[in-house]
User: Fold this.
Amino acid sequence: MANLGQPLALRAAVGPAGSTKPLKDGAVPTPAIQFEFADVTSLIPAYRRMVRDLEYDVCELPIVTYLLARSWGRRLTALPIFLRHGFFHHWIVCRADSDIQQPRDLEQQRVAVRAYTVTPPTWVRGILRSAYGVDLDRVTWVTDDEEHVPEYQRPPNVVAAPAGTTLAQLFKLGDLEAGFIGPAGIGPVDPAATRPLIAEPESAAFDWFQRTHIYPFQNVVVVKDTLLEAHPWVAGELFDAFKQSTTAYLEQLDRDGPTTPDDAALLRRREIVGGDPLPTGIAPNRRALQTIMEFALDQRILTRTPDVTELFPPGTLDLA
Assistant:
């Protein structure tokens, strides 16, 4: 292990989230590691720097991006630290004046998605097929951005928006019937001009959870393989640090109550999922991990689903 008088300096890119805030603020002691947190106003460029150039020692990364990057030989490995748990039924909307009345009406329509391999849309498309019977191959997915992993070749029903246009513009003009919201597609939306594709999305998500017992997550924490090879102890130290940060956040939330909309949403989810609303370790996240891999395979993002043990350092497989 590192000499505690000389902690190992690690450059890290981690976004703002309640569960990581105590670590980034220094409230969680890490005597063996000295973090240098990159100032990232948007995580999207950080994702690309990591999977293309391995710019950081430690980086938060969307699970689909991680799986795809690994399949193309990127030398990085995830730790069983799962970030940004939640449900995604509300992430897709249609125009308020659209003829779409149910999810299957998406077939033969054009739908906005920033890039095909973005993680929340992968979750949503999988749910649309498995829970609502949508034939994803009969939808045209329109993008206005590049994939994080540039080698990836998109399916033929994924097309680029016309040069010089954005998905938000095309959606507003009526050229697109539906779209993913926020950074996944059309950006902020006017509630008066849109409606959820899935009716009562929060209730629908909770009902889906009760049927499937799948509690989705969005991101994992990845580490450069060269770092793990040089300092094998780092994996356990990082796991402990992020775990302590999550615990500190939940304790503060119980003590002081919610201060942000995300805090309030987490408390509502906790009533549904029970137990730990931000689980770490493979065991409580295995069902969700297996599901997102199956969704990515079905959507022609992956060519095979790896065994879970391939995705994490051997010494972390039983951490909880």
About this structure: DSSP finds ten helices and eleven strands in the chain. The chain has a mean pLDDT of 95. The first strand starts at residue 8 and ends at 13. Residues 89 and 97 are 20 Å apart (CA to CA).
